[in-house]
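Problem: given the chain below (1068 residues), write out its structure.
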Amino acid sequence: MPRRNDVNKILIIGSGPIIIGQACEFDYSGTQACKALRNLGYRIVLVNSNPATIMTDPAMADVTYIEPLNVESLTEIIAKERPDALLPNLGGQTGLNLSSALAKEGVLDKYGVKVIGVNIDAIRRGEDRQEFKNTMSRLGLDMPRSEIAVSLEEAIEVVKRIGFPVVIRPAYTMGGTGGGFAYNMEEFQTIVSRGLSVSLVHQVLVEESVLGWEELELEVVRDAKGQKITVCFIENVDAMGVHTGDSFCTAPMLTIAPELQARLQKYSYDIVDAIEVIGGTNIQFAHDPKTGRVVIIEINPRTSRSSALASKATGFPIAFVSSLLACGLTLDEIPYWRDGTLDKYTPSGDYIVVKFSRWAFEKFKGVQDKLGTQMRAVGEVMSIGKTYKEAFQKSIRSLEIGRYGLGFAKNFHRKTLPELMEMLAEPSSERQFIMYEALRKGATTATLYERTYIKPWFIDQMRELVQLEERILPHKGHLPPDDLLMQAKKDGFADRYLAQILSVPEASIRQKRTALGVVEAWDAVPVSGVENASYYYSTYNAPDRVSTSDRRKVLVLGGGPNRIGQGIEFDYCCVHAAFALREAGYESIMINCNPETVSTDYDTSDKLYFEPLTVEDVLAIYEKEKPEGVIVQFGGQTPLNIAAELEAAGVRIIGTSPATIDLAEDRDRFRKIIAKLGIPQPESGMASTLEEAIAIAGRIGYPLIVRPSYVLGGRAMEKVHDEEMLREYVAKAVEISPERPILIDRFLEDAIEAEADAISDGTDAFVPAVMEHIELAGVHSGDSACVIPPVSIPRRHIDTIEEYTRKIAVEFGVVGLMNIQYAIANDTVYILEANPRASRTVPLVSKVCNIPMARLATQVMLGMKLKDLSLVRRPIPHFGVKEAVFPFNMFPEVDPILGPEMRSTGEVLGMAENYGEAFYKAQVAASQLLPLQGTVLITVAEHDRAGALEVARRFTGIGFSIVATDGTRKYLAANGVAASPIMKMHEGRPNIADAITNGEIHLVVNTPAGKASVHDDSYIRKAAIKHKVPYITTTAAAIAAAKGIEAVRKKGHSAVKSLQQYHASLSG
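Solution.
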């Protein structure tokens, strides 16, 4: 069937900010859809609130709206743009839920918008737990015994019938949000209450537990003719009980009989026929190896995290093909490299893919490292190898957690076998590493299987790795015999790991194996659905089958797995570098190992190597391709960590030199240069012992900011109030970087923080905009809301910031991007830090100011001068407010306060003609639904009372009533603002927690009392999150919120404008 002609303009809804369970795989699927549909001649209207994505770049869609993802703003966009159709299944759970809501409220009917790809009934049949059950029983397919409940009382009746243990699954959520396992009634009541509150339709499923069964997934595609293919069979190595987003998994299935795979395929085809999905669907099964019973766990009638993985694992671009199918094409009209057309597709490939997750438990105090049915991972890596062992070991060195193999992690090898077995009682992010040491200590396959439910085949493969390692270890201090070295490389042992366990330099391992002819070879993963495309992976188990060109070429190093502190913003920069290289006539070569991203899409660069970002892997590609150089400044900390070693091995780094990047990190040298330039900086010092630290603190005075050298995302950065806290910090810091000292800076109280991104060509620098942080100094820049252009910084300070930024960029000889953070205190601009590399604000500045920074920086790195680029700073007639999004709802035990250590997973952007409305929109987009009337609770620490007074005055001025705790209330009253009293938790009842639970409070303004307070006040913030009451933890943000509410109440919302319209007004 040819493309549909009854449709001209198509609306695509993105997935919003990056959160746990919904990451950059939707940027990848949305970007693919835009490409596919524009190729077919359709006009695309894209709506997404996340500025850090490639999909929200103005060139990706015809019209782009960076607006909150809710029914109100979508209704307005639909009324204005009048799209003919909506494609709902590319924006993750957010896109699906929003499409359902638009249909339910009659918006789609009113404006005549057709839903293509998956009909609204199909979403209901797939997502609504009862509808799904009815459909499955009609098909005669088995499911775990389960019943629906819409209240706690109903749920208790259900569990009496089913019996413990049970799983609780809320409807219309993703990432297992709010769900979990319950083994007793007390746990059950907690999880059900949480599940009901997060479910869109206040509904949970109580289900018999299939803990320990095999978890198997199929990714299938169906077209309008009912033709179906299976793209990928995925085997989760971790059994049922660990969310698939946290599971370590392989493709193809390695231990599953062909008969069972055929059975799962038949069930999957029956399901997609019944639900009538057009495009990709992910189906999860559980299989009991003891009885052979197969049950269906869930289906996702949309592109998902698994479909991004399946796409990258097989070379089958699911989102791209799904978009074509949604517009009327069928599988027999789309090309397939092996058998002509896609209806004949079968998964093939003589390689094995492993996916391994990356977590961020260390960022959240008080969170237990435990894996269950609620997803906890913040990112993942994918590795490709000829054997399971090779792919598995490659995935470990791709993670960038300072481990290059499975052995000797933490102190596990010092523990006894009984201790290790006890640590394996519950799944954790360390499980594979603990199993490795347990095998070394003599654990049997049977006892490990019993404890972990990981299949014996996988345990035996790991045992063989341990046995080989034990044969290598006696050669410590020397290079191992040739046969052992060759076997180790075939089994995936990294040069770096062998060097570590043998205590020899990595370079000598590399020289020795090269002399033996043991070098990386490469093979291709051909891409389906398009003509002549492939990407490549390395192996030590096959001959080299990949040719190279003699074009001018440049290598771009990607950012590796997503994590807190280094996310999609860096991928955005890498993608733009690839585009700019291609425009300049170079062959662009990308190296990255993150399956969720646009940078690992087959056509982003001319050539993609799906490889870990380690010295061993990058050097091998460099030697093969012989590029003119390598770009390291766009991939966050990942490439920077290996830049100096690459340069020492003869690699040419393009742009700012590794020496300059090091200089900015070396606080002592950096401080001297800044002093020479005459730029003010807070007093500071470096200490490598506790005595030195106490002496420096005595000289500078408390409070202080302390941190280790060399980190991204403020890892282990703390504000210290007194000597006792300093002693505690130093005791902990020794673990962080033994050979590196800690940095101590005076903390500037009540300073306004600002930052500037610059493009520099080594002799001149251009600053597109200065950003003002809304939270005061002391909150990590990645977590602070910020606004462009600044709203309270006087012009002379902005000029000073620009002048300092230029001075520093030129003094350091920066070529490419640079980010500098400043604080303004007592009418003086101080420099806090400089980073001569891409920062996480690059996409934000690019979109608000219409200056494609990463592209321009790439051109400068290739030799252009700023004066040739004719860049002009234009006044910005609108405001852009970035707000960070946090995973605190996933970690209910964590106190949600902000500090110098970064904890946000993503961000949103609010754009409007005035600052108040832009801030309001950013809050709404970040799911902080600010009330337009009602009651505000104000309870602040003593040193915040002056700020709280302004907050209270603003809110009473627009008709809110105020309730306040005793100290705050008395202070407000003394200054002429009336507030009703409310009790704290320890003062009696009814108290704050009761008022929040009863819905009597509509906004919470609560600054943490800090260390000085006798009573913990974190329950206020935790209660606000639990009951979805917006909460603000700084007075600066509370003042901004009051301005935002006032702007919206006075003028209502101004009409929505597309990004292209905002950009047109810049040039006009």
